[in-house]
């Protein structure tokens, strides 16, 4: 296999206001204009700010691309409206779990949202589904798992309170399968990396805002910073199944190719 490039966009928070939509559109234009375009764009939750059908209609237009776009819900999303408006499926409250093949790569997208709750949990049915996906995946093919809620402590006072419950259940699966290269999440509004079950845990930045760590937060003030440009994660899987991630901010003011005086 050659190089596979997966772009991860997260926490777009479409809210029917111009700001968040423009920022997401700028990121999508950046990805479309890359010399080597991504093989897939993954949207890891909090697509909308409050799960309203009109917000999904806005998101559906802004996230359109001639690159495959795969989205999963976050805690701000609503499974019914997500399914109906974004996916064009029948409304249902069941978890929105999906698997996609991207070349040799298997992407397992897990719905960690809990209806009506900010924190995350994977249901028994989702774990059964994941075991089935792993059983059906190519024996020699790389696998990435993606979900909204990080399954680890990130030193973020806001997010750590509403992270993934029972992370050890997911850890057992991740540690037990050599094909799993790593786990991708959103939720933290911060580009961050750590390890989970001995594999990389890669947390994508938000296109909407940046959430501080415990060394900079002063609750209830100085929580969310809306000044930084939107950002994305770019995950490269090479022919040796090595995973490399670059985090890239996408300047709203455009590209400047000459060093300023």
Written account of the structure:
The chain has 261 residues and is an alpha/beta fold. Helix content is 21%, strand content 26%. The protein has five helices and 15 strands. Strands 4-5-8-9-11-10 form a six-stranded mixed β-sheet. Strand 6 and strand 7 (117-120) form a beta hairpin.
The helix-strand sequence is EHEHEHEEEEHEHEEEEEEE
The gyration radius over C-alpha positions equals 17 Å
Category by helix and strand content: alpha/beta
| Count, helices | 5
- Strand proportion, as a percent range, falls in 25-35%
> In this structure, how is the largest beta sheet organized?
6 strands, mixed
Name the average pLDDT. Answer: 96
**Lateral strand order in the biggest sheet:** 4-5-8-9-11-10
The separation of the N and C termini measures 44 Å
- Strand tally, please? 15
Q: Work out the oligomeric state of the chains in this entry.
A: single chain
Poorly predicted ranges (pLDDT <50, ≥5 residues)?
none
What overall geometry do the principal axes of the alpha carbons give? globular
Helices and strands in order:
Blueprint (H helix, E strand, L loop, with lengths): L3 E6 L8 H15 L7 E5 L8 H10 L6 E4 L6 H8 L11 E5 L2 E5 L3 E2 L2 E4 L3 H13 L6 E4 L20 H9 L4 E6 L6 E5 L2 E5 L6 E2 L12 E2 L5 E7 L5 E7 L12
Parallel strand pairs: 1-2, 2-3, 5-8, 8-9, 9-11
Antiparallel strand pairs: 1-14, 4-5, 6-7, 10-11, 12-13, 14-15
Helix pairs in contact: 2-3
């Amino acid at each position: 296999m050659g190089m596979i490039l997966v772009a991860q966009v997260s926490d777009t928070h479409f809210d029917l206001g111009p700001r968040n939509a423009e920022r997401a559109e700028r990121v999508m234009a950046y990805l479309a204009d890359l010399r080597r375009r991504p093989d897939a764009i993954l949207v890891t939750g909090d697509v909308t700010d409050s799960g309203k059908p009109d917000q999904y209609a806005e998101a559906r237009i802004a996230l359109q691309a001639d690159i495959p776009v795969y989205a999963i819900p976050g805690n701000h999303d609503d499974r019914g409206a997500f399914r109906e408006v974004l996916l064009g499926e029948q409304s249902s409250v069941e978890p929105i779990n999906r698997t996609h093949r991207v070349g040799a790569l298997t992407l397992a997208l897990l719905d960690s949202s809990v209806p009506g709750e900010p924190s995350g949990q994977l249901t028994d049915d989702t774990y059964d589904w994941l075991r089935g996906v792993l059983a059906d995946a190519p024996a020699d093919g790389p696998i990435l798992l993606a979900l909204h809620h990080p399954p680890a402590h990130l030193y973020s006072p806001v997010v750590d309170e509403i992270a993934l419950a029972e992370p050890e259940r997911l850890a057992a699966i991740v540690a037990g399968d050599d094909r799993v290269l790593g786990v991708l999440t959103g939720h933290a509004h911060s580009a961050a990396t750590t390890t989970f079950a001995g594999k990389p845990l890669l947390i994508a930045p938000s296109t909407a805002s940046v959430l501080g760590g415990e060394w900079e937060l002063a609750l209830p003030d100085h929580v969310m910073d809306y000044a930084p440009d939107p950002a994305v994660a770019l995950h490269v899987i090479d022919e040796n199944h090595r995973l490399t991630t670059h985090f890239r901010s996408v300047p709203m003011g455009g590209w400047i190719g000459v060093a300023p005086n």
